[in-house]
Amino acid sequence: MDHLSTVTNWEDMQLDCLSIIFSKLGLDDLTTSIPFVCKSWSQVSSHPFFYQVLDFRFLDLNPSSSFSKIFSSQYSLPRFTFSSFLKLAMAQSHGAAFDLRFSSLFPPSIEVLSLASITCPRLKTLCLPRICFDDEVRFFNLLSKWRDLEWLEIESKPFKLREMAEQIGIHCSKFYGMKIRGLIRKEDVTGIVDFLPKIEVLDLSGSQIRKEEVLAIVDGCRELKRLSLKECVGFEADEEVRRRARGIQVFEFDGCRVEDGLRNSEDQSEVLEQTFMYFDDCFEMWMF
């Protein structure tokens, strides 16, 4: 504090002090404010250390937002695009990024994810809104590039979850957990059990899942430390479920219920899942 009180010029601040301060800032300040204060600040703020976590979820990325206008002005762009901001952040990381999180309002295209697989090869955490059905196979192939991946979070379950689990099981030896939400079918569960038997954390909160599938997960994934099934529809945590899940350290099932008239047929589940995906696509088209 004594040193800070005697500083008369911003560039005179010690580099370790700047590093501590900059580490508390978001991507918006690191790209539009700090680099334009002075040369020393610009040099320090461009260090890959500050771009190890690329979290775009809480930024106002609308073209009319103040951040977008400032970004366009500072970098002499005719208009703001999320891709230009994304590419800058990824380039600044110089391959050091290990945490990548996207906003549901600005989901990444498969081209963006392809770029991320090249510029961010050390990813440990990846959080996505959803993967378009037509892009699922291409996304699954990208998983071979992220061999250090440990945690995957997707707001809407991929239709071909089994295929995704297989790719993770083959290429991501450090993988320990996943969070997804959707209609959990029998083949989804067998994919998890067959290819990710050592998974430690599984969060299916808000999903539709039957008791048979819950028991298959509990019995098949013997190293589970946390299983979250909060607000799920299709089963209740009765005595049998709780007894067979006793080996799981944290078993969350608050709000689970079986709705009247809910049929358990696989055909109905596929129709519902495709319907939800259709509405998700319509929402994204409306947003853009």
From TrEMBL:
Supply the InterPro entries for this chain: F-box-like_dom_sf, LRR_dom_sf
Q: Which domain of life is it from?
A: Eukaryota
In the UniProt record, the signal sequence range is none
Per its UniProt record, what PANTHER family does this chain match?
Answer: F-BOX AND LEUCINE-RICH REPEAT PROTEIN 6, F-BOX DOMAIN CONTAINING PROTEIN, EXPRESSED
Recorded protein name is F-box/LRR-repeat protein
Taxonomic lineage of this organism?
Answer: Eukaryota, Viridiplantae, Streptophyta, Embryophyta, Tracheophyta
